[in-house]
Each structure stands twice: as C-alpha cells, then as structure tokens.
C-alpha cells in the first residue's frame, strides 16, 4: 500500500523503524520482530539504510522479508555515493518484492572513507526525490529536521530546502527525533506558513541509556531539555530506573502529540519491541487494522 493513502484515511498513523541486524541470523531476528510488531498493528515499518549504502543488500533483504510477511514497508534509500544505475538496481529489487514506499535521504559517506568518497549522481535528497518521482511507481517520503539539519547554517534555510523536497515529490515527512514537543509544534507551524501542507509524522525515541543519548546528540544535534538532563542526573547510577523513566517521558510526549492531533508518530524502535509495546500500552493505544487502499476512505 502507498503510505500516502494511509495518511489520507487515518489519524494518527502509528509506525515503526527498524535497522537491519548485522548478524548472520538476521532473517530469524526480523521474523521474531515481525511476530512481536504484528500484535501492535503498525501502519508501516521503515528499514534503515547504512551510511554510503553500507547496508544496501541487507536493507533490501529485510524490507523484502517484511513485505512478504504482509507489512506495508518503507525502505530508506540514500543517494550520496550512488550512481543512477546503482539506485535503479536497488529500486528494481524493492519493487519486485512489493515494497512501494521509499524514504529518500541524502545520506552520509561511511566515516572510514569520508575523505575519499565521491558524491555520485545524487548530491542532495531532492535529487533522489526527483529521480524517484520520474519512476512513478513509489510513494516518496522525506526527512524533516524540527531543529534544522546539523550541517545547515540557518534553520530557515534548512526549511526552505525541505519545501524543495516536498515540491519535488515528497508526499509526507518523517521528522528526526526530538525531546521537547514545543520544538515540534513550532516547526510544524513554521512550515505550514511556508506552504508545506503534506502529512508530518513525529519521530520519537525514548532515553534508554545515557550513552545512547550522547551518541544521538553528537550525530543529529537534537537539543536536550532540562527535564531529560534531570533524569540523567537522578539515575546516573541506576540504568534500569533511567530506562523506565525514559519510557515514561516518551509516553508523555506521544500522548501529548496525539492529543494535539498530529498526523502520525514514528517510533525508532532500536529493534526492541518491549519498550514499544509498553509505550503503546501506556497510552491505551488499540491495535488497528489498516485497510487496503480501496477501502481506506471508509476508515477515518
């Protein structure tokens, strides 16, 4: 199913992200994840794509596997470092597996080759979006950055680039994670004033441990509000309690977002269904059967 059809029929749309396991038993791992996630009934599952396409084959493998299990799947795809021919080969494999949706990203080169890496045929995400749109067979999503991309010199410039991606063919947006809902609401109001009216789904990840938080902030530049810093201080020597408090904080975020009529919530699962299950139980979310596109108009 094209995910844009789901956003046209349902609100809020609850979706998950997983990453391809690096071990040889990845098919077994994903099969177990699929069994756990099926109980929760996500609208779709997205599958990440490593820097410079380092997980290209496993991303296609896992996306194809999930599609075969009956999930609506969105495969991440990065442009940097890839030629048109390479991207088309990936798209052909995904299409053959029934994957109809792509999250188009610029991507980053692998760290160990960053100084010698070539940009390929897609310097920016908008270039990849235009190429995907020319194919006419995929639903297209783009990434959005409520606090601006970490490499952008100004937040308004980043949001102008976001509008270019929407104008080029992105049908809905998935945000980078954030820890303060006020940041998201300000972002949403700002881009609506700019003329971006497509669905925007909020990316959420709980603080599960201090190391994870530091790694996330260093990579994406998300700000850390005082409440989260307070949790880190309070539970510095108690990782179990920190994880519990982090899930409770994320639960409050999601509940507030839903109360404020967001288009959707995208949970960055880290391949850990237990916290996702707990959060959805906490908010009283009831499993939903997303209908085929032909019936979607009856669902809202």
TrEMBL record:
InterPro entries, A to Z: FAD-linked_oxidoreductase-like, Mehydrof_redctse-like
Superkingdom per UniProt: Bacteria
Cited CDD domains: MTHFR
UniProt keyword annotations, A-Z: FAD, Flavoprotein, Oxidoreductase
Names of the cofactor(s): FAD
Pathway(s) per entry: One-carbon metabolism; tetrahydrofolate interconversion
Gene Ontology annotations for the cellular component aspect, listed alphabetically: cytosol
GO BP, one annotated term: methionine biosynthetic process
Coiled coil: none
Catalysed reaction equations from the record: (6S)-5-methyl-5,6,7,8-tetrahydrofolate + NAD(+) = (6R)-5,10-methylene-5,6,7,8-tetrahydrofolate + NADH + H(+)
Entry's Gene Ontology molecular function annotations: FAD binding; methylenetetrahydrofolate reductase (NADH) activity
Family: Belongs to the methylenetetrahydrofolate reductase family.
Name by which UniProt lists this protein: Methylenetetrahydrofolate reductase
Organism in which the protein naturally occurs: Thermodesulfitimonas autotrophica
